[in-house]
Amino acid sequence: MRFITLCCYLVFWVNTGYVSANPIIATVGTYVTLRCKYDAGYYGRLPFCWGRGHIPNSGCGNEVIKSDGTKLLSRLSERYFLTGDLAMGEAFLTIKEVQESDSGIYGCRIDIPGWFNDQKYEVTLTVNPGRPFPIKVESREVRERTLTVRWTPPFDGGRPITAYKVALKYKYATWDTAKITEVAQTHLIQVTLVDLRPAKTYNLRMFAVNSVGMSEASNVLIFTTKEAAPEGPPVDVQLQALSSYSIKVIWKPPNVELRNGVLHSYIISYREYDRVALQFQKLQQLSVTATREEESTILTNLNPSTQYSVLVQAKTNAGAGPASTTSFCSTLDEVKETTAATTLLSLTTASTKLTQYTTPTNVKETTPATTLLSSTAASTKLMHTTTLTKAHTTSTGTISTSTVREQSTLQSTHLTTVPPDPPVVGLKEVIDNTISLFWTPGFEGNSPITGFYLEYKAANASWDYTKAIVDFSSNETDATIIEINPSTYNIRMFAKNSMGTSKASNVLIVTIEDR
């Protein structure tokens, strides 16, 4: 009896069909396939199941998926699905976007007809956290000196994202030269880069960071900032008097880095000096098409022996830049040729002038007709004045009512064109190169606020030389901007509605330190 029992146990052990595979190590967020296979050519198609934990005596414990060998019968969730060729006996289980909680033992049971001959397969799956997935970044708005980008937070790899990194470079530079800015505010999905150069092509890409590491690079944005008016004046301006009536102007374009776009023309401003009044007269202007690296033009129809001042400005499609230093030049003296004809003309002119001087010039002859006409005109003027006075006297009430009505209309019109009050802007924090702002809208005026815009400049510059203007919608009340050049800056904001623009807000003074 003992022998039979022992044999039974031995048979059971031999026919359990356990197969143990090497452990599988995967990373959070990836797809993992667990393989289990039987000889479908010999057995035909057989039912099978997958479960979590060791395989029990029958069925699959904690079953996650089940098939009759031809189709899917059931599954725990849509994250589990069958892959492989069922006709070939490939009972593969694929788990979609595995998590650390998916780690553990998985068992596959192939239901082979007969006693104690099911095929069993076990594998241990270990899922480790990984780096975040790459970001998908897109541009929202490109202006002369700013770029606003937006992205969708990627899968974090099983560990919270701790920062984003923004890499920016000129198009033809290598990524080794890129300026890297770390954005520690992980809740953000949009930032604005400021202090870019106009009419320049840049490349931008981003990374996500967690405790495991940094993601692969995002897609690369290639963008070109818009043109701006030149920042520098034309250089090497020279003037040359060609004749008594013309001056030649020669100059070179502004430095390449200060052109801010394609130069299409120049404005030549000039005016003559009045020696009697001791001042320059009205400014005259001439437009010259930009064609080469050394330009020239000739000012004509000038006066002889006269001093002129000349300024030159370069111009792009965005506007004209600053003027060059004022240059001065005098036309040549006029040379007169004396001939017999000229002498005769001079004598004739002198004789004519003598005759004019001997004729009384201030004596007026008074005739009765003239006296009558003067008297009539005076009478008409008197009557007209009297009539106006009477009209004013008899219509005082009417005129006053009309005046009040006009004043009321003007006041009403004024009341319906009230722009909003300026917002109050505050500073959340400054981390490395990122500046986080918030603002509180003021009274919206007689029309809803339609948006806000931010002005941004170097602290030692005038607001006339604003570095950046960034627009925001009416429902935005905070923003984060990235300054790529360390320095001290001033920031202010404005509100807009259909009636106009508010006055400037308070001014923030922000310093970006060199790291």
Automatic annotation (TrEMBL):
Report the CDD domains cross-referenced here: FN3 (cd00063)
Q: Mind telling me which SMART domains this protein's record contains?
A: FN3, IG
Q: Which InterPro entries match?
A: FN3_dom, FN3_sf, Ig-like_dom, Ig-like_dom_sf, Ig-like_fold, Ig_sub, Ig_V-set
Record field: transmembrane: none
SUPFAM superfamilies xrefs: Fibronectin type III (SSF49265), Immunoglobulin (SSF48726)
Which segments constitute the Ig-like domain? Answer: 29-128
**A UniProt-annotated Pfam family:** fn3
First and last residue of the signal peptide: 1-21
**What does the UniProt keyword field contain?**
Immunoglobulin domain, Signal
Domain (Fibronectin type-III) spans 131-228, 233-334, 419-515
The protein's name is Down syndrome cell adhesion molecule
- Recorded source organism is Characodon lateralis
